[in-house]
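User: Batch of two.

Assistant: Item 1 of 2:
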Amino acid sequence: EGMFFDNHAPSYQTLLGLSAGNDKTALFASATNQRETGLAPNTGANLTAGRFNVDYSATSRLKLSVGANLT
């Protein structure tokens, strides 16, 4: 029992975000990495994800948006 449940299972998360733009264009990008050790041996997980968005105002009535999410 101690072998399985004596682990305190710490988890770590790192997040980085960046945004920029001007009056017509807005950019946003982010990345995250999450690491969990798990309660029992070999039950941990590692997740890495990213996101990217671009918004462009072509005219006062037309706005174009493009985005991507990666995991």
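Item 2 of 2:
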Amino acid sequence: WLEGKVTGEYDETTENAVKGFQAKRELEQTGEVDAKTLEALNSMTRKPTDDELNNRITPGPTLLGDGSEPA
């Protein structure tokens, strides 16, 4: 969903993205990452698991069972 190049600068594109984030969450649309905006961002963030940090795939439960019992 990102349009444009990532520049590392807080430019008009970044400001518009922040305003869009704020609008979607019914925050004042300042384009600045103020305390309320940062709180909203942080509330949506979680610490990655060790597997995610190390790019490991851990098998989960099967969708249809293990196949040992007849359906």
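The CA atoms of residues 10 and 67 lie 54 Å apart.
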